[in-house]
């Protein structure tokens, strides 16, 4: 099929490449405008732009895809279908109905659960045992269109937002190719989403990484995994920032002592939470690299009773 592909981050790249490898003609890659990066404000390309240029696919980077001139530009490509994967802009009804087969979205959850911008992180944050990818026929709502196909993925006990991101990206690539084949041969089925089961998740923010020690050890441990690699989970000790990269939830303790160091020796550092205790396994002091907790304890004086 003749495809216009819309996507921006790393998640989208395996999907784009899988479509090319399956023999489809990707006539245009649409992605977000270049962004300034770092102190020098050098221009940073999106992952999709980089991949598209490597594959010699024309790239289009509109600030607002809904503008009339943008719609007109898309129309000139006479695409059979548009495939959207984490593009980052809302499409107008005029765009959604433009191609012969409409627009198909690859969404990183089992819709209607976890509609919205950050379904991958929230699956970890909420302690889900399984999640997955859904291909959906897009409509004017946010992730509300008919479900085409799904694939399910089990979460590992040590699953992070980053590791799940990679798994769902690869699963989404396979599912997208399969869905397009079924669309093309007329065997795809469309299933309405059950609104009563819908949940919505918003953007992940940097502020979400701060630890609230009155929460349970289980919640904080999930926070550490779910927000890895970005924005990371952090607390403060002796007025200095300390990032937490790996921990284990333990039972017991006194919830009235939340945030206090309850056990420390050469190899372990255990902190009381609002329910249970948290054994810190990998940390990153401000201005330093990530390190196992035993290495951290060799360089920092920590005493029982000190408070995070």
Approximately how much helix is present in the residues?
25-40%
CATH architecture term of the largest domain: 3-Layer(aba) Sandwich
Low-confidence stretches: none
**How much strand?**
25-35%
Number of helices: 8
Q: What is the structural class? A: alpha/beta
Count the domains.
2
Rg estimate, integer Å? 23 Å
**Would you count the extended β strands for me?**
17
Could you give the order of strands across the largest sheet?
5-2-1-6-7-9-10
Mean pLDDT: 96
Shape: elongated
Could you give the distance between the termini?
57 Å
Question: How would you classify the quaternary structure?
Answer: single chain
The main sheet comes to: 7 strands, mixed
CATH class value of the largest domain: Alpha Beta
CATH H-level superfamily of the largest domain? Formyl transferase, N-terminal domain
Pfam family, one: Formyl_trans_C
Family: Belongs to the Fmt family.
Enzyme class: transferase
Binding site for (6S)-5,6,7,8-tetrahydrofolate: 109-112
Overview of the molecule:
Its EC number is 2.1.2.9. With 308 residues, the chain is α/β, with parallel strands linked by helices. The chain folds into two domains: 200 residues, Formyl transferase, N-terminal domain (Rossmann fold), CATH 3.40.50.170; 102 residues, Roll (Methionyl-tRNA Fmet Formyltransferase, Chain A, domain 2), CATH 3.10.25.10. Helix content is 25%, strand content 28%. The strands form four sheets. A seven-stranded mixed beta sheet has the order 5-2-1-6-7-9-10. Strands 12, 13, 14, 15, 16 and 17 form a six-stranded antiparallel beta sheet that branches. A two-stranded antiparallel ribbon has the order 3-4. α1 packs parallel to α6 and α5 crosses α6.
């Amino acid at each position: 099929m003749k495809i216009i592909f819309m996507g921006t981050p790393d998640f989208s790249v395996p999907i784009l490449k899988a479509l090319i490898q399956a023999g489809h003609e990707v006539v245009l890659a649409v992605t977000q405008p270049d962004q300034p990066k770092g102190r020098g404000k050098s221009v940073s390309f999106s992952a999709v732009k980089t991949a598209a240029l490597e594959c010699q696919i024309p790239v289009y980077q509109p600030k607002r895809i809904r503008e009339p001139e943008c719609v007109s530009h898309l129309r000139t490509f006479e695409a059979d279908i548009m495939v959207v994967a984490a593009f980052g802009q809302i499409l107008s009804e005029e765009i959604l109905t433009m191609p012969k087969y409409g627009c198909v979205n690859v969404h990183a959850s089992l819709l209607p659960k976890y509609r919205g911008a950050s379904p991958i992180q929230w699956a970890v944050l909420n302690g889900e045992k399984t999640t997955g990818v859904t291909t959906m026929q897009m409509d004017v709502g946010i992730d509300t269109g008919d479900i085409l196909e799904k694939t399910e993925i089990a979460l590992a006990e040590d699953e992070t937002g980053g590791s799940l991101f990679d798994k769902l990206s690869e699963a989404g690539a396979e599912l997208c190719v399969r869905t397009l084949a079924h669309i093309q041969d007329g065997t795809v089925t469309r299933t309405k989403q059950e609104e009563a089961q819908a949940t919505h998740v918003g953007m992940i923010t940097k502020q979400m990484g701060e630890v609230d020690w009155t929460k349970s050890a289980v919640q904080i441990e999930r926070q550490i995994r779910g927000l890895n690699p970005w924005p990371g989970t952090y607390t403060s000790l002796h007025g200095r920032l300390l990032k937490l990269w790996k921990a284990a939830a333990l039972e017991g303790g006194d919830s009235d002592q939340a945030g206090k160091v309850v056990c420390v020796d050469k190899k372990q550092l255990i902190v009381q939470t609002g329910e249970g205790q948290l054994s810190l396994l990998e940390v990153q002091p401000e201005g330093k690299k990530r390190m196992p907790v035993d290495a951290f304890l060799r360089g920092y004086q920590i005493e029982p009773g000190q408070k995070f």
